[in-house]
Design brief:
Strand content: over 45%
Radius of gyration: 27 Å
Largest sheet: 22 strands, antiparallel, barrel
Structural class: mainly beta
Helix content: under 10%
Distance between the termini: 36 Å
Length: about 800
Amino acid sequence: MRLFILLLSLFLLSPGAYAQITQTLRGRVVEKESQSRLWAASVTVFEGTRVVGGTFTDSAGQFTITDIPIGKYTVAVSSVGYATISIPNVLFTSGKEVVLNIELEEGGQELQEVTISGERRKEVLNEMALVSAHRFDVQETERYAGSRGDPARMASNYAGVQGADDSRNDIIIRGNSPQGVLWRLEDINIPNPNHFSVPGTSGGPVSMINNKTLGTSDFFAGAFPAEYGNATGGVFDLKMRNGNNMRHELSLQLGFLGTELAAEGPLSKKQQSSYLFTYRYSTLKLFEGLNIKIGTNSVPNYQDAALKLNFPIGKKSNLSLFAIGGLSHIDLVVSKLTEPSDELYGEDDRDQYFSSNTGIAGLAFQSTLSSQTLLKAVVAQTFTETFARHDKVFRNAAFDIDSMKYILGYYSSIGSTEMHVFVNHKIDARQTLKAGVLNTLYQLNFVDSSRQYPLTLQEWQHRSDYQGVTNLLQPYLQYKWRVHDRLTTTAGLHAQWLAQNNSVVLEPRVALRYQTGVRSRIDAGYGLHSQMQPLYQYYTHYPEYSAAQMHNLNMSFTRSHHVVAGYEQGFGRHMRLRLESYYQYLFAIPIETREGSSFSGLNQGANFSRLFPDTLVNKGTGYNYGLELTLERGFSKGFYALFTGSVFDSKARGADGVYRNTDYNSRFALNALGGYEVHISPRSLLITGIKVTYAGGRLYSPADTDASIAKGDLVVIDSLRNTLRFPDYFRADLKLGYRYNAQRVTHEFGLDLVNLLGTRNLLSMVYQPDLAAQGKDPFVKQYQLGFLPLFYYRIDFGLGK
């Protein structure tokens, strides 16, 4: 590998290879609360203690520094009366300019400068978030081995967060169902932003969020601020960046996960308006040709696009248009097989035809009303639809097809008209007030018919047939008070009203942070959080009743008390240690009225199946508690390291009154990550990274053999739910990359070796009717993905000076 890279370096180098290549740094500095532009703020670029370049902002808060040699530097920004910001590891390449939009907070002069990424701590964008909050950027989604440029997979490296399984990017936060995660984009709530998404889930196999469109964003793992609602587990608050408003730039990428184009540049240099556009298309046909197992013998097809247009209006206002969308389709055809196969996606006893499409488009207006007040209004339309058809394949003992039967068909369409308006007002240098309201008008269309169980059933059983609307209203108020330079507190109130059944909840939130020293702090927070149930479950009905008799229409919100306490200690400029403990009590959980049932709504949301439970009532309870450790060495001198660990317990109680392990109670999770970058030449860089994950095994339930054979599908012994556990999970990932900076063009090669050792981790127990027909044991253990190599080649370049 090293010989290959050295030869490649020699091939790419030209006679003037070692002439110095430089790049431009541009951006804007604003006041954090009101977004008013700061004049005469100092912007300095450092390499260690050596000053590489510097300037001051103009009357519009803008700055430009030219002739910065390619490499990684620290950018420091300061202004009289504001806390200094230090941004380490800012990457300068030959292909693209560096554009930074920086927010300064008034006051805080007595303490050490704030570091917003990569060193002692990572201050999040949302100033109201004091606990269980993480800030991430594009470099993080690309840096960690196994992350695949996916924000959700990247977040699984945080303490207390883990993936549900290798085939999907659902995340489990502190034992909560992935269903409890809220996705937000540009200050509006959005549907599941993943390809091949299924109603009632928040994840999928492939993200349709292209990280090339993202700016710095926030992730919250609990006790989140009052502006976030309809979530009990966590929040992804994603921000799209603006395109370069002075130069056209392009990025082309070819890889196993798709062919991509990204373009950005000015619409009008005079008006400083810009565009940003990305498009990706993939059939994963390359995997089939190379005989690489991706969990299915079928070829998934998907494409996605994103757009942001930004229009400054004078010196105080801004208008932006944003949109993302994705199309995905797969035909899981098992009737063509001549022998049994390991099908991770879908079921191996039927042909499945599946499509899912998602679109989001919005308009955002922002205006600085005064030096202390910011107004923002966002209006958006979202749409997601899912279609599926299943044809059962009946085989004989020789695995030949006897017959086929159309057994399941459904269509789900959820549109939403979103409006979010808020005002951020800085009362004085130490107090900030934020008030807003978010309204969601849902447009619903659910159709579902089944005759799959038992297999002899001939008449269609209609489970859903509904078209209509409902509304979710969420007003909130939150307040921040920096009592003095060491103590900061926040308090807030969030409310929710669901129109279809007049469910109303009030949710108080409070948090504090105390700076015990220059490099240490303690923090604590409490939040009452609520979430409505998956929309399709409200509108189901028993097959023997009419479509108007929907037995779960009056379900209320799932609710959760969440208490968090943490301690953080910095060591030098690059090391930090964080301990965080939490307790979460969940109540008003949907459980079945059926006597003796162990069903709990906390066990939903991490696979490709929808659930149609019996009549549900909000009488269940559950709890999660645990301890988390983070030890991080920020990127410096070409090296970074991260260790995260968590131990926890997660239980739920159904109608039978027994507390049992939830599906997500793996008890512990450990991650060890590290990476090293070494310069092969002044222009070329070798990038390496490794990740090792060790976690508790997945839980499963013993099968009821007679009931499974009678139904033709897996039926577990209800009273023994989640009493068995698979062996512990282990996976090692390796990332290799090579970056070469030619004159005005950057080339990058990457190879992500997922599950490098090919470890066979168990995923679930499944029932295979074909084996039952052959007189064999029909209960089969299903394994997660094996070794998966992911390759890409990317080229970045700009047009013009």
